[in-house]
Amino acid sequence: MGAAESARPGEVKIRLRDLHKAFGPNAVLSGVDLDMAAGTSTVIIGGSGTGKSVLLKHVIGLLRPDRGSVEVDGVTVEELAGEALTRFRRKFGMAFQEGALFDSMTVAENVAFPLTRIGSRSRAEIAARVRECLGLVKLEGVEGKMPSELSGGMRRRVGFARAIAHEPEILLFDEPTTGLDPVTKETIDELIIDLKNSLASTLVTISHDMGSVFRIADRVAMLYGGKIIAHETPADLRASRDPRVFEFLRRDLEMWGAARSG
Amino acid sequence: MKTIEAFFEEIGRFFEMLWGVLVWTPRRPWDWRQLLYQMVRVGVNSLPVILLTAMFTGMVMALQTTATLMRFGAERYVGSLVSLSLVRELAAVLGGLIIAGRSGSAMGAELGSMRVTEQIDALEVMATNPIHYLVVPRVWATVVMLPLLVVVSDAIGIWGGYLVAVLLMGTNPVAYLETTFQYTEVSDVTSGLIKAAFFGLFLAVIGCQQGFYTSGGAQGVGRSTTRAVVIASIVILISDFFLTKILF
Ligand SMILES: Nc1ncnc2c1ncn2[C@@H]1O[C@H](COP(=O)(O)OP(=O)(O)O)[C@@H](O)[C@H]1O
Ligand SMILES: [Mg+2]
Question: For the whole model, what pTM was predicted?
Answer without folding.
Answer: 0.90
